[in-house]
Write a structure and sequence with these properties.
This protein has 141 residues and is of the alpha+beta class. It has one domain (2-140). Helix content is 18%, strand content 47%. It has a 10-stranded antiparallel β-sheet with strand order 3-2-1-5-4-9-10-6-7-8. The longest helix has 16 residues, at 73-88. It is globular. The relative contact order is 0.21.
Length: 141
């Protein structure tokens, strides 16, 4: 199932961010999660929505991560932990590229991927690892 994920500012809690999960076809919210894994990922920012944020100085849903739904909840948390360990392992790290995903409508026009000191725009990734501390893009290299 193809879904769109965005950070829900009203549901976030002391343990971190909570994300709304929206069905791509119906555009209806089908749930809320702290842990998600998506495949075949695209990163979207609505120009009109971002312009409204800049004009009104008030946040609205205008940016989301879209992908094929893979895992949620504890299953996603375990999967993310495993991917991160593999990326850190010197025997397998050359096969994985994991970058932090950033988005701030006041600073950037699009989602940004950060690895070390390098920050660059991102439109797609093979997978998105989404947790309470933020999102990360995973690509096989």
């Amino acid at each position: 199932m193809r879904v769109q994920i965005y950070r829900n500012l009203h549901k976030s809690n002391e343990t971190g961010a909570v994300y709304s999960v929206r069905d791509k076809k119906s555009r209806k919210v089908i749930g809320h999660q702290q842990w998600l894994v998506l495949d075949n990922v695209k990163y979207f920012v609505s120009d009109k929505g971002r312009a409204r944020v800049l004009r009104e100085k008030r946040k609205n849903v205008h940016a989301w991560i879209e992908g094929d739904f893979c895992h949620q909840g504890e299953s996603a948390r375990d999967w993310i932990y495993c991917c991160e360990r593999l990326a850190e392992d010197s025997r397998t790290s050359h096969q994985w590229l994991i970058r932090d995903i950033l988005y701030n409508p006041y600073k950037y026009e699009t989602f940004m991927a950060k690895q070390g000191l390098i920050v660059e725009g991102i439109l797609t990734s093979e997978m998105a690892l989404i947790g309470p501390q933020g999102a990360r893009a995973l690509d096989y290299i």
